[in-house]
Amino acid sequence: MKLDIFDIIPKKFRLKGVAVGFTIFVRALLNFVGLAALLPVLYLILDSQSIHSNTTLHEIYTLFGFTSDQSFVIAVAVAVVAFIVVKNFINLLLYRIERDYIYELYRYLSRRLFIGYFEQGLQFIKRENSAVLSRNVNVVCYTFITGVLRPLATIASEALLLTMIFISIAIYSPIGALLAIAVFVPVAWLYFSLMRRRLDLYGNVENEAQRRKYRDVIETFRGYADVEINNAFDHRLSLFDKELETIVGVGRKNATISMLPQNLTETGLAIGMALLLCLGTILASADMKLLFGVFAIAGLRLLPSARNIMGAWSSLRYNRYTIKILNEAKVEEEKRTTSDEQLPLNSAIEVRDLSFRFEGCKENTLHNLSLTIRKGEKVGINGESGVGKTTLLNILLGLYEPSEGGVFIDGERLEGERLRKWQNSIGYVSQNTFLTDSTILANIALGCEEQDVDMQQIERCIGAASLSEFIASLPKGIHTRIGECGALLSGGQRQRIGIARALYKQADILFFDEATSSLDNATEQSINRAIENLSTSNKNLTIVVVAHRDSSLDYCDRIVTLEKNEK
Fold first, then answer.
1. Three-state SS for 243?
2. pTM
3. Which pLDDT tens digit goes with each residue over 296-312?
4. Are residues 55 and 195 in the same domain?
5. Tell me, what CATH number does 257's domain have?
6. CA distance linking residue 565 with residue 567, whole number of Å
7. Are residues 175 and 110 in the same domain?
8. Is 534 among the domain residues?
9. Does residue 338 form part of some domain?
10. Which of 22, 88, 305, 412 is most buried, by CB atoms within 10 Å?
């Protein structure tokens, strides 16, 4: 698989990437100059007479009017230290540009992936595993940044520095350059050739195991009651342990591999210095001693650079699976638009010759269906399981797009910009009302900041949904937290919060999808009375109810029965 990284980077970040590339070059140049600044110190250490024998040092000595060799040595040492300090400070400032770019890109990608998954619609969300999507948004994007892009920047920076060092050694001593090639190239080739496929394999294996483990944990907590009652936790735990063992095993192997660059490069440096030491002893040459010193200084910088390149390459190979995931997700420029405008119902909702087929299915769930719902009507929809009651409701809600035909509001097709306006105008209560792990207030005014909530409207909705007595009994009232998915509430209380939420929108069309099917008879009747009272107090309120029990439809003006033979 080729590295299609460029396709992942949004256009707005590509020009900035060029600027970041320039800072990487400047940092490499500064590091090289910092290394070169150590050479005068090396000359003075190896040959104290070089102050006058070395042309450059002597010219500096004369230019600044030194009269004492001791003061010159001190001045050179102080100047080198000062330069290194300034160089490191500038390096840090330049690195901040690279750092900020990388993490801004992470923020963009993670946010865009979250939006992108959401905008693919209800069918996509139902088809995919939410745990996997969640991990992609929260983990994969971060891993791509820290495990792919940052290593690429490291490789670029260190490779530039290595090139500069090698060219300098080659100019000073071709023998030293050949020796560096002879020592470090075989080491790098050995590491890359042996580890390449293993790192690809280990990265993919760990990613798949992490996805399965993430899914197992979420499913176990979500289904706690069923898992506990059926004594299934040990089985779930064994699945967890299996994935954990895979992750730990791969992690151990990767940890060992991550130590190899340091060991290999240190071995190579030791071999190179040993060879130079032997040559220096045999030739007994002052130049060889100086070459040894130059090679030692260069090697001390080559060592971490080579190690960093190998380590970064290992990280890139190990985490390259993120490239495939992000490419498949088609992360594009943000184009999301929203609107608070509403599309009020003035006359009727019309379903005209509507057919719908799920992706991958050969037969229609709904076929050539026509239906009219007039403003102010209370219409029930029933039928056997599987006939498409909820599917029809999702189409009316604008969550599914018809395969043929369409939905028309006051004679105009429901599509495009009208879809968002329509959804702003309707209220929806499902069988499993969506509740966040927050307060009652936050769940009724879903999507609103607390400071923007109309508390008088909240009180009216609480009363209309028959929640006043329950909330008054709570120590913190409307600010009481309700737990994950409303776990601290009864089924009837959860549904009433759903009704209050729909009313808070001041919707003039309410849709109920099996909203009372999981409740006991008394609670069902109580909620049905609350819904009927809403209709009585507002003659213009249109209500559409999907249910399979006739008792849930007693207050409806008419009932539409869907049949399987409508295909």
1. helix
2. 0.71
3. 555 556 667 777 787 78
4. yes
5. 1.20.1560.10
6. 5
7. yes
8. yes
9. no
10. 305
